[in-house]
Design a protein that fits this description.
Helices cover 34% and strands 15% of the residues. It is α/β, with parallel strands linked by helices. It has a single domain, classed as Glycerol-3-phosphate (1)-acyltransferase (3-Layer(aba) Sandwich), CATH 3.40.1130. It has a 6-stranded mixed beta sheet with strand order 3-2-4-1-5-6, sandwiched between helices. Strand 2, helix 2 and strand 3 form a beta-alpha-beta unit.
Length: 181
């Protein structure tokens, strides 16, 4: 990955430990993660969370729109953003849940390339079933090739989303992510 380049990072969301993995995986000093507003209510952790994450209240369309504007503002400042296009945990035995448009719409509107990142072992280290279900072991992270959005328009959002989904899905299967049946 080009550490001098700005990206819309997208990742598969399978466990609570995904966010610490993102922090380790990206190793960039300039990025912001889109995170659920309800996590900000957790004592102590919530304070840190509120001050480092772009919060989204998924129950409110106006709050979601505000979050999108904040993410675009972050990108305009030269800071990368990190989103899970699945929106929440993938609690299926499929490689991925259906993707939302947001990450891809933002990438196209700001002409920022998409950089997919896969967490192959996060489910085994700490599943979505419990925040406290930590297990030792390997934690493989795979960086996929960036996907250019150069010249794309909002008419291309679905095609871009489908392209990134297919790429991520194929690689999760190829690398034998453990939750896939």
């Amino acid at each position: 990955m080009d550490h001098k380049k700005q990206y819309v990072f997208v990742f598969n969301h399978i466990a609570y430990i995904d966010i610490p993995f993102i922090m380790k995986a990206i190793r960039r000093q300039n990025f912001r993660v889109l995170g659920k507003a309800e996590m900000a209510k957790i004592p102590i952790f919530g304070f840190l969370y509120r001050n480092t994450v772009v919060l989204v209240d998924r129950a409110s369309s106006s709050a979601r729109n505000k979050s999108v504007l904040q993410l675009k503002s972050v990108l305009k400042k030269g800071i990368s953003i990190v989103l899970s296009p699945e929106g929440t945990f993938n609690m299926t035995h499929h490689p991925l849940k259906e993707f939302y448009d947001g990450a891809f719409r933002i990438a196209i509107e700001t002409q920022t390339p998409v950089k997919p990142v896969l967490f192959l072992d996060a489910f085994d280290r700490n599943s979505y079933k419990s925040m406290f279900s930590l297990n030792p072991g390997k934690a493989r992270i795979v960086y996929l090739d960036e996907v250019s959005v150069e010249g794309l328009t909002l008419l291309d959002v679905k095609d871009l989303k489908d392209k990134v989904y297919k790429l991520m899905e194929e690689k999760l299967i190829e690398y034998k992510a453990s939750w896939i049946q």
